[in-house]
Write a structure and sequence with these properties.
mainly alpha; two-stranded antiparallel sheet
């Protein structure tokens, strides 16, 4: 059973930083992690919302973790979870890449087309 105060990706406690696959801690893992309730050992905790219409690579990542840790989530529905910094980075790298250069090219093309229509 997953608790919001643990990292969905590696089962690290997001309050004290203990690896819960190896050790047990006494933190209240049912409360959502925030700056006020974390120790200095955990610099960041990232709360995410899973959606069944997410990026396919991210869905596979979540499915893999759901299966390997036997969380039992129904992936046809959305749910909230948390990541540590390391797992959040891995998850974010799986998202669609949107480069700034592509945005600039599209913007330039739009300006050129707009100028042509104004003439």
């Amino acid at each position: 059973m997953y608790k919001i105060g643990t990292c969905f990706g590696c089962q690290k406690c997001l309050y004290c930083g203990v690896n819960l696959k190896i050790e047990i801690c006494n933190c209240n893992k049912t409360a959502k992690p925030s700056k006020k309730n974390r120790t200095d050992l955990v610099k960041n905790a990232f709360t995410r919302v899973f959606s069944p219409i997410s990026n396919p690579k991210q869905i596979d990542f979540i499915k893999n973790k759901n299966d390997s840790f036997a969380y039992g989530f129904d992936l046809a529905k959305g749910f909230q979870f948390s990541f540590c910094s390391t797992c959040n980075s891995s998850y974010q790298r799986l998202s669609d890449k949107k480069s700034k250069s592509n945005k600039k090219v599209r913007t330039s093309e739009n300006v050129i087309q707009l100028e042509k229509t104004l003439k």
